[in-house]
Structure formats: C-alpha cells, structure tokens
UniProtKB/TrEMBL annotation:
Transmembrane segments: none annotated. Residues 288-438 form the Glycosyl transferase family domain. Pathway: Glycan biosynthesis; glycogen biosynthesis. Residues 2-234 form the Starch synthase catalytic domain. It comes from the Bacteria. Belongs to the glycosyltransferase 1 family. Bacterial/plant glycogen synthase subfamily. This is Glycogen synthase. The gene is glgA. HAMAP family: Glycogen_synth (MF_00484). Pfam families: Glyco_transf_5, Glycos_transf_1. ADP-alpha-D-glucose binds at residue 15. The lineage of its organism: Bacteria, Pseudomonadati, Pseudomonadota, Alphaproteobacteria, Hyphomicrobiales. GO terms for biological process: glycogen biosynthetic process.
C-alpha cells in the first residue's frame, strides 16, 4: 500500500509540537505492516541542507509566485519528498513565523502551495509514483483533500487528521481567487467558512475520512464546547470520524538507553532516578529534599492550561510540592512563570525555551508531570511520563482521559492506578490533585507501584498502527462513487 503523507512538520527534522512526533513515527510504525509512506514536507532551511545535490522529481515554473521543485531524499529512516520553494519556505525563524513568533502573513499561500503539490502528486505528477491514499495533518495541509476533490485525483481516498482544532487556517475571502480552485469551491460544501476561506474546514469537508488522536476527543469535537465552530460539520460526518490514540516512539523514549539522562534505569531500578532528580534540581536551582518534584513540559498556550496552574501555584507549593517548568509560547505566560519562580525560589524553577534533551531528563528525574489542559486531542507528554515512571497528573479531557488510570481508592487497592485525574479548567480541582500526589508520594511503596504500573503500559504504535492500516485499507477498497 502506498500512502502519501502531507505534513508541515516531521520529527526529528522539524518540530514545534506533537504533530511532528506523530508524522515522524507513523511511517516507521507502518513500514512493517505493508504500508509505504512517503512524506511531503516544505523545504525549510534545515531541510534544504539535506537534499542539496538530489535531482528534482517534479518541477514547477511557477507555484504561488515563484519557481519550485520536489526532491526525493531519505533521512533518518524517512522517505521524504521535500518541496523546495525558496520564496515560500527558505526563511529564518520557525515553520509558521519569524524569530519573534509573529505568523508569516503569507501562510495561506505557503500551505496552499504545499497542499496543491500533494494533490498534484496524488494525481500522478511524479513519474513512476502513484500513491493510493493521501494522509493530511492539520490545517496546514488540509487543502490537499480539497485540491484533490476538484482536480485529477478526485477518486483517490484521503484521510484528514486533526491534531489541533484550535488552529483552523481561516483567511479572508479575498485569497480565494489565488487558490486556483474552480468557482464552485467557494461554497458551503467546499472551502467557504463564515464568509471567508477555511483550510481545515475544507479538509474536513473533502477528506474521505477524518481521524483525531484519541477516542474521547473524537466524541468531544462533535459538541459545541470542544468543536470550535466546526462541531456541526464534524457531527454530520460522524460515520467517517475515527479516534485513534497516538503511540510513542519507544526507542527514542526509553529510560534504559536514553543518552539525555544522567542515569539510565528501568522498572526494577527506579532508585537510580534519584541521580536524574538531582540533575533536574541543579538545573532549575531547586532545593534538594524528598518532597515531590512535579514538572511541566509544554507549549505555553491557553490550550495547555498552564495559567490555571500558575494561578493555583501558591496553594500547590503550600501542599509541599516543588515545580519545574520547561516551556515557551505566549509572552505573558512566559513572564508569569518566570515571576512565579522568582517568588518561590528553591521551590519553583523555570526554563523558558524549547529543549528536547532537557525534556527527557525531566521525565527521567521528576516524580510527576502535570498537564492541566483545557482540551487535549491526545497528549504525548503523559505517555512519555508513563514510560519514564514520571507519574502523570492530568485534566480529565480528550486523550488524557483515555490514557491515564486515576489513583482512586479502588484503583489503588487493585494496583492498577497509573496517575491522577482532575476536572479540567479548575484551579481547585488541580490543587486537590496535587494534594493527593503529595499524600501518595509520602508512601514510597505505593508510589513505586504506581510508577511500575505506568511503565508496564503498552504505549507503542502497535495497536494504533494496525487501526490506521485497517482504515487505509477500507478506504482504498471503497469504490470512488462511495467517497
Ligand atoms: N519547551 C519544550 N521543550 C522541549 N519539548 C517540548 C517543549 N514543549 C513541548 N515539547 C514537546 O512537544 C511535544 C508536545 O506534544 P503534545 O502532545 O503535548 O502537544 P501539542 O499540543 O504540541 O500537539 C497536538 O498534536 C499532538 C499529536 O497528535 C497531540 O498529542 C496533542 O494533543 C495536540 O495538541 C512533546 O513531544 C513534548 O515533549
């Protein structure tokens, strides 16, 4: 089975969040199951470096305002098709904005171009390569199914995965003329969205199937509370909606072999985590004591609810817990976290920035990881936490609710608890959960048993990979007229 994945990020080459982890892991997880995935990604500066001398497999005299070409290259075990369009992608800064974090004003053009090329490839634009299905990720590539629908590849099935409904790619109606779509596409069942153009909306409408990254979130987004304006459309497509929980790369995230740790360990040698804890304490300027050390590794945005934790922090510290923050994002939230650390010297530490290695050390050294998200499609950091014996303390929402077993009395006595759940969007509930953390942590045998229980969980891609294969297979088997 040949699948073209169209993605704006792919781990380990370019990552701003969890989408990259998933786009990077799926091709490898599916390779042993008879599915060959090629990934089309923009040639950002760091990607350009790896294909310098490769011949183009596809060329455009003009693609959204400039010359472009597609280059096939293998890197890190991934089969990549890099879209080199220097006028769109060869810029300093991040994939979506400049160094200050401000979005590029032509993002609609950049990601329409990526999607258009995906649809062209689906239509046979690369000699000798004809994908049987296209898999798009989030708004940045959501126009691929739309371009397919109105172009040559109208009969090729497509999957639209929602990693984050909060980013929808909404633009003014004025861009429509430049998208190169037929006039009829500017309609309710096309790309039109509240009078403008909606990229994600267009993808959700056009794709043969929609997936999101956990069963609970798949149900949540059919409701106004979580649907962010798209619930009506998603609910209409409920028969084509699938919730497939993310796996993790259990080789990259393995405490027994992880080079980022001061000491490696496994479920039988949990005591060695102390060495990592000491390293975290040093790095964050925290007191050395036996109180629970709880970390945050997160983008600092409204979604992640870190502001709720900041507001409840005085109470959290009073309950005897220490906090270590690693995150970047909203400037105001970054400032609030730094101010908190200054106010609770020794009890709260903060590093503002993105540091993959440090995130591993924190999972390997902290006692728990707190994730107070307002909504969470799946969440990966709680899965890394489970794998590393860093007990997840999570809001009961989306994928967090699907992957953590709360340490209530019944679960504790049955020995099946793996973490702590609390009602989302509530500082009181969060504080109560932290108090429970402090209590259970005070019983080392019980705590260690929870850690081991989490470490036993199967977090690999095995089961979910099988579900993607089944979905791909069923879509490919459908007649085009059933689409
Ligand atoms: N400052 C920092 N330094 C180092 N590493 C950092 C970091 N901040 C975040 N990370 C890392 O980035 C990734 C974030 O993954 P998440 O699943 O938490 O969220 P994200 O919201 O980006 O992804 C969206 O897509 C994913 C994938 O489908 C869904 O799991 C999720 O719910 C959805 O919101 C993790 O690998 C984490 O370790």
């Amino acid at each position: 089975m040949h699948v073209l994945s169209v993605t704006p990020e792919i781990f380990p080459l370019i990552k701003t969040g969890g989408l990259a982890d998933v786009a990077g892991a799926l091709p490898i997880a599916l390779a042993g199951r008879g599915v060959t995935i090629r990934s089309l990604i923009p040639a950002y500066p760091q990607i350009r470096e790896i294909f310098r001398r490769k011949k183009a497999v596809l060329q455009y005299g003009r693609l959204f305002g400039g010359k472009a070409s597609v280059h096939a290259v293998e890197a890190n075990g991934l089969d990549l098709l890099a879209l080199d369009a220097p006028h769109l992608f060869d810029r300093p800064g991040g994939p979506y904005g400049d160094a200050t974090g401000a979005d590029w004003p032509d993002n609609w053009r950049r990601f329409a171009a990526l999607s258009q090329v995906g649809a062209d490839i689906a239509g046979g634009a690369i000699a000798g390569y004809m994908p049987e299905l296209v898999h798009a990720h989030d708004w940045q590539t959501a126009m691929a199914p739309a371009y397919m629908r109105y172009g040559k590849a109208f009969a090729t099935p497509s999957v639209m995965t929602v990693h984050n409904l909060a980013f929808q790619g909404r633009f003014g109606a004025g861009i429509f003329g430049e998208l190169g779509l037929p006039a009829e596409a500017m309609s309710l069942d096309g790309v039109e969205y509240y009078g403008g153009v909606g990229f994600l909306k267009a993808g959700l409408q056009a794709a043969s199937a929609i997936t999101t990254v956990s069963p609970t979130y798949a149900q949540e987004i059919r409701t106004p509370t979580y649907g962010m304006g798209l619930d009506g459309l998603i609910d209409l497509r409920a028969d084509d909606l699938h919730g497939i929980v993310n796996g993790i790369d259990v080789d990259t995230w393995n405490p027994a072999t992880d080079n980022n740790l001061a000491a490696t360990y496994d479920a039988r040698s949990l005591k060695k985590r102390r060495v990592n804890r000491l390293a975290v304490e040093k790095h964050f300027g925290l007191d050395h004591d036996n109180s629970p050390l709880v970390c945050v590794v997160s983008r600092l945005t409204w979604q992640k609810g870190v502001d709720i934790l900041v507001a409840a922090a005085d109470g959290v510290i009073a309950s005897g817990v220490r906090l270590a923050f690693l995150g970047a994002g909203d400037t105001a939230l970054e400032g609030a976290v730094l101010a908190l650390a200054a106010r609770h010297r020794g009890r709260i530490g903060a590093v503002i920035g993105y540091d993959e290695g440090l995130s591993h050390l924190m999972q390997g050294g902290c006692d728990a990881i707190v994730i107070p998200s307002r909504f969470e499609p799946c969440g990966l950091t709680q899965l890394y936490g489970l794998r590393y014996g860093c007990v997840p303390v999570v809001a009961r929402t989306g994928g967090l609710a699907d992957t953590v077993i709360d340490a209530n009395e019944a679960a504790l006595s049955a020995g099946v608890a793996t973490g702590f759940l609390f009602a989302p969007d509530s500082g009181d509930a969060l504080l109560h959960a932290m108090r429970r953390v402090a209590t259970v942590h005070g019983n080392p045998a019980q705590w260690a048993s929870m850690q081991r229980q989490g470490m036993k969980a199967d977090l690999s891609w095995d089961r979910s990979a099988e579900r993607y294969v089944e979905l791909y297979r069923s879509l490919i088997a459908r007649r085009p007229s059933d689409k």
